[in-house]
Amino acid sequence: MACAPAHTPEPRNRHRINKILAACVLVGLSATLLIWIDHLLKASSTLGYRPENATWTIATGNFSASWRGFEETGVVQTLRAETPFPIDDLILSGRQATGVRLTPARWRTYLGHRFVASASPDGFGWSTRPGLLLRGLSLAHSTFIARSLGDGLYSFGDFAYSRHKGFLLVSRSTEYLRAAREANVLPMDAEVPFAGFSLNKTGASEWTMIVSAEEGLPVAGTVAIALAPRKAPLTLTHSWPESPMVAITGSNPRQCINAIVSLLEGVPGSERLTGSMAEMGFMLPRYTDKHGAEFSLAVLDVDTSQTLAVPEVALVVRGVKPRFSVMAPFQSIPFEWNGNPGWIRPWLGEKLGVCWTVDDQLLYYTNQQSVMARTVGRMETATPSSAHLELAIDWARVSRVGTDLVRVAAKHELLPRMNAADAEDLVVPYMRSLAQFGALHVECKSDGSSVRFEGHLAATKEGLAATEYESAS
Q: Where are the domains of the chain?
């Protein structure tokens, strides 16, 4: 039986298929070319522009990756679940201003990877390195819609913007934009991770901090303060008989206090704090670091049982030879703790005063007699640390104390424009969420002219144990 011949498409149909295939290839090549051009336009070996006199700067080499990385951390997920998350309001404001709901993917599509934001005496602004799409839109807007402000500046609602050497600069202040255009470009920082931000403070006090978008929020940076390098390991770290809410351990408390006072110089609202710290530094005995002297200052708790909240503070110093006789003119009362003679200088009864004694070559200062009774003679032996200064914060205890303080303040109408119900809805959720953050632990080392620090802002106990083991090794 003969087979029927195979059906072959008519020449017209074959020609149509060829046209469709050619169009698909052309579209694919065009899309590939546009994506390649977009990638080239977004790429840069620099971060962006900000005025030379900027006092605060935050920058990242990959904003969308940093955004997504922070969103995946337990800290941000806790804040989203338990608090009126403020970033959501920022995103809503951006959508109302631009008509686009920003997400990490959309940010990358429109604004690229580089991001620099800063504050200067002229105002606040930021710069990005956009891709092909936003460059085309901004060019069309400045050509046909925007009002020119001169010097390459254009208006966009309440904002002004300028294109400068491949970067898009935005601010409400035209003076800020002009100063940023005249400044040198901010170089990439090799220490900033793929997903993370660098923060820089200049002026009366200078510091740089890098926060990685990873679990535990790893942090590292440099502070421009002069501290004498420590010659012997710290032995008071983690030696408190009860876990303190906040603890700082290091060498020469007088020098550390003076350095912190100078670091806070010019910060609004810090005058009372720096004044109290300077007075504390003046009262401490003078000594050197020749024999491995060190101190550990801790806030153990805060008593909120009455209207006046009183912190429970203790200071332990090793390597000093106190002269108790010099305190006699200050109307001190002799006292004894665990067989160790000491003195109390009362200020507000049992709630607040100055207590001090010596035990096993340690000098103890506390602000309450009960705190001294829980501390003296009970300091444990901890693993020596090679750090020159250590800072630790137990966020769970801060959460409990912060919640109590907010409720007490609201009860006595001490919060401006906020009653007890408002405080419970707007502030208490943030205080409660801190309980899930774990602990802050930062180790510092000094080279004599600046202090280098690294650690975690919100580490779990397991993460802290691993970090301490690596440090000891």
A: 46-212, 225-252+287-472
